[in-house]
Each structure stands twice: as structure tokens, then as C-alpha cells.
Write a structure and sequence with these properties.
The structure is a single chain. The protein has one domain. Helix content is about 30%, strand content about 15%. The protein has two helices and four strands, in the order ββαβαβ. The strands form two sheets. It has a two-stranded antiparallel ribbon. β1 and β2 form a beta hairpin. The longest helix is centred in the middle third of the chain and has 21 residues. The chain is globular and about 35 Å long.
Length: about 80
């Protein structure tokens, strides 16, 4: 597993590999919705195999996690040959 993130800047985006991440929820319901999203991604990843690419939390439940809030993406990690 690797964790990546974008800096919150003046519009420029720079992808960074992170050593750690903290996810803060406003309520237990929000944490449960996130867990449901992660479980759905895991099921899709298992069913689709290498065909699975990524899913966005804001696409999973736009009402609970509307645009404008930080997005979380769950993606398949593909290690390039060295």
C-alpha cells in the first residue's frame, strides 16, 4: 500500500507520496459511509481483477461527500518493473 496526496495550493497540483495520512470525520455516520465505500472498492477490485483502476469517494455518495470537500480515491497499486 502507498499513500499519495495533492498539496492544497493556489490551483497548481503536485502529487506527493505521503508517509502517513489522517482522515477526520464529522460524525460516526460519515465514518460508516467511508467504510462502505472502502468495502465496495475492495469487492470491485476482487471482481474486476487487474481491470480495476480507481473510484472516487465523491462519486460513491455525492450527498454525504459533496464536491468541494476533499476527495479520496481508492486505486489499484501497480508497481512498475524496475
Amino acid at each position: 500500500m502507498k499513500i499519495f496526496g495533492y498539496e492544497q495550493t493556489d490551483g497548481s497540483e503536485r502529487l506527493l507520496e505521503l508517509a502517513a495520512a489522517t482522515v477526520c470525520f464529522e460524525s460516526p455516520e460519515e465514518a460508516r459511509k467511508f467504510a462502505e465505500f472502502a468495502m465496495k472498492c475492495a469487492a470491485d477490485m476482487k471482481a474486476m481483477g487487474t481491470g480495476y483502476d480507481h473510484e472516487h469517494l465523491i462519486d460513491f455518495d455525492a450527498e454525504q461527500f459533496p464536491y468541494g470537500k476533499p476527495d479520496i480515491v481508492i486505486a489499484r497499486l501497480i508497481e512498475e518493473s524496475k
